[in-house]
Amino acid sequence: AFLLNRSSDLLAALFMGLVLPASAGPLKIYLLVGQSNMQGHAAERTLEHLGMDPKTAPLLKAIRNADGTAKVQKNVWISSIEPSLESGEKHGRLTVGYGAGGRGPKIGPELTFGITMQNHVGEPILLIKTSWGGKSLNTDFRPPSVGPYEFNPQQLENFKKRGKDVAEARKEKTERTGVYYRLMLEHIHKVLADIRRVYPDYDAKAGYELAGFVWFQGWNDMVDGSTYPTRGQPGSYDAYSKNLAHFIRDVRKEFKAPNIKFVIGQMGNDGMKPDNEGSPRDYIKKAQAAVPNHPEFKGNVICVKTDQYWDMEAHAIYTGPGGWSK
Question: Cα 102–5–89 angle (5° rounding)?
């Protein structure tokens, strides 16, 4: 929860450096996309720990009422993908419970991001969240301008050794490629086509502005040694950087929003451990950080470090001798 709330607060804070001062006008809409990082798996009970740190205590007051119940934010509305519901969607005013489905209300980056951004703009805002656990950029979120997924020589050799039909493997991969990119677009378009369904006070005459996009993903690409056979070596995730740059361009084109600001939430798992240097985790983070260096992205795309908010003391307890992970 600490990582989710501190890093999402930072994501919002950095947006403030990318957006113009608030003014009355179109409804500001923020798109939140990714895999389990963006879904959010923090249980509501973990919020109590925010009150233990003077820096995060004000966040707890913004999230909870005096009696310990979760506050419902009056001026932040959200539509979020929720596969566990028949409608496939959960929407309404922002509160605890828009994280990953399952037992008990969960929390994702949407909670403090929404609170912080609404405080900044000083008017109602809408969040549209599309996230699914265990999804890659190289296949699941693959943007169309990258082109089809191509098997590398090592993969083809492995198919041959296992006696797998290459044509069938290509067919299977083609069927999977870009599925969640398209589902993302489908849901965002659905909300934009009828905003009053989610935010009843929407003023159609004033219209809306796609004010920002937050991308929080990376794990499935990091562990995919098949797609990235040299992972753990310099440049091993260059394809990730390329694909993410295409993703940004394609989203901007799709929504006719060439200036929409992008924030990339850099991988934060395991924090800033010294042995991360030279590891796959180190190189995927470098690949994410490289994307804003494109000249076309100067001033409108930024990468946010979240590893600095990983609680290393708690990590040591969890993974150490007799720890909870054992």
Answer: 40
In order of 76, 81, 156, the CA distances from 72 in angstroms are 9, 19, 53
Give the sheet arrangement for strand 125-131, strand by strand.
89-93, 76-81, 125-131, 27-34, 208-216, 261-265, 301-304
**Rg of the Cα atoms in the chain:** 20
Q: Which parts of the chain fold into alpha helices (H)?
A: 2-16, 36-39, 57-63, 110-121, 153-162, 166-176, 179-193, 219-222, 238-254, 280-290, 312-319
Sole residue written with tokens 């006696």: 163
d(CA 145, CA 147): 5
- Per-residue confidence at 15, pLDDT binned at 50, 70, 90? low
Overall average pLDDT of the 19-38 stretch: 82
- Interior CA angle at 130 toward 256 and 87, to 5°? 115
- For the beta carbon of residue 166, count every other beta carbon within 10 angstroms: 12
Distance CA 269, CA 171 (A): 33
DSSP string, 105-167: -EE-THHHHHHHHHHHH-S-EEEEEEE-TT--TTTTT--GGG-S----HHHHHHHHHHT--HH
Beta bridge partners of 46: none
Per-residue pLDDT at 325:
60
pLDDT tens-digit readout, 205-248: 999 999 999 999 999 999 999 999 999 899 999 999 999 999 99
Read off the pLDDT band of 21 (50, 70, 90).
very low
The type of residue at 47 is L
Instruction: Produce one character per residue of 20-53: b if its CB has 16 or more CB atoms within 10 Å, e if not.
Output: eeeeeeebbbbbbbbbbbbbbbbebeebeebeee
Structure token pair of residue 306: 């979240």
